[in-house]
Design a protein that fits this description.
Helix content is 43%, strand content 21%. By secondary structure, the chain is α/β, with parallel strands linked by helices. The chain has 3 domains: 3-66, Arc Repressor Mutant, subunit A (Orthogonal Bundle); 79-171 and 275-303, 3-Layer(aba) Sandwich (D-Maltodextrin-Binding Protein, domain 2), CATH 3.40.190; 174-266, D-Maltodextrin-Binding Protein, domain 2, CATH 3.40.190.290. The strands form 4 sheets. Strands 4-3-5-13-6 form a 5-stranded mixed sheet, sandwiched between helices. Helix 9 (208-219) links the parallel strand 9 and strand 10. It starts with a helix and ends with a helix.
């Protein structure tokens, strides 16, 4: 099909994406605020234009299933939607980021520590910007970047890949965090052996840091008492602040809320802390808003003391 005819099917593509993602003509119609018959007609017209069947419609209550052709089209549509979003942002760029859209994926600990101050400053400097912030683990963030749902990411442990472009990195120091009345709170540094016998709040097994810590404790023949594990570093610090136990974290941003906890540098770990990285998909034209965010991150990292 000539490109001009494909462009003429953009409304049908939008309906197709919603049906494919929601698995239902009715659900797609509700989201698009149109009649289910209108969605069905758009899909049928698209199938006629492409001369393929995009959905198997014989699954009854189990919902719709994409055909092989439908799977191919949905995969390619992610790039189309991403390029259209970039085009919109480039048009908005003509007005000096007055109406741009920052779509960011970020790990939870950075979302609570680092992000609020950055977003506050960007919003002040560019009051017309819209923000969509997805807080997820790194694996999910990479998947969302690949699908075109987000433009730029901030987190730990991005996999080495030619399709991921790293814009800035920061290696943070490792700290024991304690309540302010804990005996270690008065120290500037501690060794791993100094936490022998302590009550510990660990990150859970879904976080790569957990395995690093367990291996280090085994290697050092150091026994601690695990009283809690969590996939939330925000909760971990809150429970440390309450005096429930101590924890180990990478870095000490805490820009917006100064929690009543002490950071004591841990000096003899048998591993290097993973860097914080700001990344985007290689080969895609960056949006103006993501370029501005990357510049702010680079400035922050250059001024950060660990």
């Amino acid at each position: 099909m000539p490109p001009s005819k494909i462009l003429g099917r953009l409304p049908g593509l939008r309906h197709f994406i919603e049906v494919a993602q929601l698995g239902s003509f009715r659900a797609a119609a509700e989201k698009l605020h149109v009649a289910p018959s209108a969605v069905s007609k758009q899909i049928k017209n698209l199938e006629l234009a492409l001369d393929v069947e995009l959905f198997r419609r014989d699954r009854g209550r189990a919902g719709l299933e994409l055909t092989e052709a439908g799977e191919i089209l949905l995969f390619r549509c992610a790039s189309v939607v991403n390029e259209l979003t970039i085009a919109q942002d480039e048009i908005d760029q003509l007005q000096g980021l007055q109406r741009g859209h920052l779509r960011l994926g970020v790990n939870e600990v950075l979302a609570s520590d680092l992000l609020p101050g950055l977003l506050r400053d960007m919003s002040y400097n560019h009051p017309g910007l819209k923000f969509t912030i997805i807080v997820e683990n790194t694996r999910e963030i990479v998947a969302r970047m690949q699908d075109g749902d987000i433009d730029i990411a901030l987190g730990y442990n991005f996999p080495p890949s030619a399709e991921i472009e790293t814009l800035a990195t920061l290696r943070r120091r490792t700290y024991v965090v304690t309540a302010l009345d804990h005996p270690m709170a008065r120290l500037r540094t501690v060794r791993l052996e100094n936490i022998e016998g302590e009550k510990m709040i660990f990150p859970d097994a879904s976080i790569p840091m957990r395995q690093l810590l367990e291996d280090a404790l085994v290697q050092g023949n150091i026994a601690v008492r695990e009283i809690m594990s969590t996939n939330s570093f925000t909760l971990l610090r809150q429970m440390v602040e309450s005096g429930m136990g101590i924890g180990i974290v990478f870095g000490r941003f805490l820009q917006t809320r100064r929690e009543k906890i002490a950071f004591v540098e841990l000096t003899d770990l048998p591993f290097d802390s993973p860097p914080v990285a700001c990344c985007r998909m290689a080969g895609r034209t960056p949006t103006a808003s993501s370029v501005a965010f990357a510049a702010a991150i680079k400035t922050l990292f250059a001024n950060y003391g660990g």
